[in-house]
From TrEMBL:
Entry protein name: Cytochrome P450
Family per similarity comment: Belongs to the cytochrome P450 family.
GO molecular function, one term: oxidoreductase activity, acting on paired donors, with incorporation or reduction of molecular oxygen
Record's keyword annotation contains Cytoplasm: no
Origin species: Trifolium subterraneum (Subterranean clover)
Positions annotated to bind heme: C396
Alphabetically ordered keywords of this record: Heme, Iron, Metal-binding, Monooxygenase, Oxidoreductase
Pfam hit, one: p450
């Protein structure tokens, strides 16, 4: 069964299952529970956090690529990395640095490409463009390196291609019914596992060279400003090469595909819903400088992005492994070693959570209007009903940064251009997933310049 069909198939079962939870019998006795019940999600992600971990199956599958980085580890190692990363994410200077990077990339690279395309009526794969754009952004933010993945020629760099391959091949390991298949291919260094080994070697060697160069740069000039995340980690005394390599690669992975996935579906939905597009354009046109406070006040755009990710979450499912026997709030018995999966994609489509109009792209479900001044106020849903950014102790550190980036990108693109999908995408593209979701076959569009 294809990844796309499996996501939808499991979602359909969640919809009709009592308490939105069911057991899935997998080959060779592997135990799995699928749930879309917010009470169960809160139980595994918060209330019984220590009993539900990444687990050995998950960490071993991704260890070649991610090592023991923050997204591929448990226990004390995770707590330490979380504490270190949390300190850096909460600084105003990092926020300012991210704003500068996004604005520079928009002005100097993305906008000129879209402007040129609008003049020639050339078809672009907008998903690919967004993936390249966000990859350049996150590499600059993570370790101050510009891969120039999004250039007028849009040639693939070795590092970027290796990162893409490592990501895709690692994620495909999860789809195999028998993990022994990839383990044997790895042992004999054949097929996809041979390419994975080559890709991981390229990524790690490149990252380590960047780290060594950055260390030397900081040693030679102690007054240099530590703006990117690598410099911040090194300057705060965290200089162990394996640790820094793993955590930086993890952050690149998290920031690269999730943002581009969210924006790909957002621009498709925007084209399908001209009323929403009109409201967003009003909000964009009311802003002058798009500084932090103005972007923060773009509540309708914020709601539209939240609504888009409800329907098309960047990470449609996530799993934890039970350390000990347990019972979920709905009475589901969980045996030690069982994989418990919360189905984010299904939860965004449940009438019991979102109403009978769940299929409608309606940003207003996230908003309340002030009766006095008529202004919108954003009303967040609890993170266990809407676990798009996870929840509990592992809630996404970069959530606010991601929204800030996405709103700046939407303002920069939608304010100047209309993104028009090719005719075959105007009904419904296929939603597929590797480690994060994608639009199957890309997102071919033409770009139309807006008349001032």
């Amino acid at each position: 069964m294809s990844g796309n069909r499996r996501i939808q198939w499991l979602s359909d079962i969640v919809q009709i299952a009592p308490s939105a939870t069911f057991h899935l019998d997998r080959p060779f006795g592997t135990r799995q529970i699928i749930t879309g019940n917010p009470s169960n999600v809160q139980h595994i992600l918060k209330n019984q956090f220590n009993n539900y971990q990444k687990g050995s199956r998950f960490t071993k599958t991704l260890s070649d690529f991610l090592g023991t980085g923050i997204f591929n580890t448990d226990g004390e190692n995770w707590k330490f990395q979380r504490r270190v990363a949390s300190h850096e994410f909460n600084t105003k200077s990092l926020r300012n640095f991210v704003e500068h990077i996004v604005d520079t990339e928009l002005t100097n690279r993305l906008i000129p490409i879209l402007n040129s395309s609008s003049q020639t009526n050339k078809t672009l794969d907008f998903q690919d463009i967004l993936q390249r754009f966000t990859f350049d952004n996150i590499c600059k933010i993570a370790f101050g390196f510009d891969p120039e993945y999004l250039t007028p020629s849009t040639n693939r760099t070795k590092f970027a291609q290796a990162f893409e391959d490592a990501n895709e091949i690692s994620s495909k390991r999860f789809r195999l019914v028998l993990p022994i298949i990839w383990k044997l291919k790895k042992r004999f260094n054949i097929g996809s596992e041979k390419r994975l080994r080559e890709a991981v070697k390229e990524v790690h060697e490149f990252a380590r060279k960047i780290i060594r160069d950055k260390k030397q740069e900081l040693q030679e000039n102690s007054n240099i400003q530590s703006e990117d995340m690598l410099s911040r980690f090194l300057s705060s005394g965290h200089s162990e090469e394996d640790f820094v390599t793993d955590i930086i690669i993890s952050f690149i992975l998290a920031g690269k595909d999730t943002t581009s996935a969210a924006l790909t579906w957002f621009f498709w939905l925007l084209w399908k819903n001209p009323r929403v597009e009109e409201e967003i354009l009003k909000e964009i046109n009311q802003s002058e400088s798009f500084d932090y406070n103005e972007v923060k006040e773009m509540v309708y755009t914020h709601a539209a992005l939240s609504e888009s990710m409800r329907l098309y979450p960047p990470v449609p499912m996530d799993s934890k492994e039970a350390v000990n026997d347990d019972v979920l709030p709905d009475g589901t018995i969980v045996e030690k070693g069982t994989m418990v999966t919360y189905h984010v994609y299904a939860m965004g489509r449940m009438p019991s959570l979102w109403g009978e109009d769940w299929a409608e792209f309606r940003p207003e479900r996230w908003l309340e209007k002030d009766g006095m001044n008529g202004k919108w106020t954003f009303v967040a849903r609890d993170s266990f009903t809407y676990p798009v950014f996870q929840a509990g102790p592992r809630v996404c550190l970069g959530k606010e940064m991601a929204f800030m980036q996405m709103k700046r990108i939407v303002a920069g693109i939608a304010g100047k251009f209309k993104v028009v999908p090719e005719s075959h995408l105007k009904e419904h593209p296929n939603f597929i997933s590797f480690l994060s979701s994608q639009m199957e076959g890309g997102f071919p569009v033409t770009i139309q310049k807006r008349v001032p």
